[in-house]
Amino acid sequence: MYFGGGELERVEFDWETNGTIVHELLTYFCDRDELNARCLQGKMDLNLAAEFGNSGVVEELVRAGADVNLRCETGETPADVARKVWGQKDGVEILRKLLGWLEIQK
To answer: pTM of this prediction?
Structure first.
């Protein structure tokens, strides 16, 4: 939900600005030990970015040193999460972008 009160559709999200903000935050506040920290649901930032199809944030996190091989609470790597969420026909382009960063680092 966003300020307007409804659900934010994927096409309405400003992916470029989001990636820029993440880049700036990682530049100034990057603690390598916290890149792989887990939220209360047991997911890492990289898993969440893959789940939401945010390839720009995936790129920034991988460049900053996030571990692409760590498994979340369900035992899945970020690449596994990306395949599960974006592997259907209409998500193939998003999946390709995500896996370009998540698999090249193995």
So the answer is: 0.77
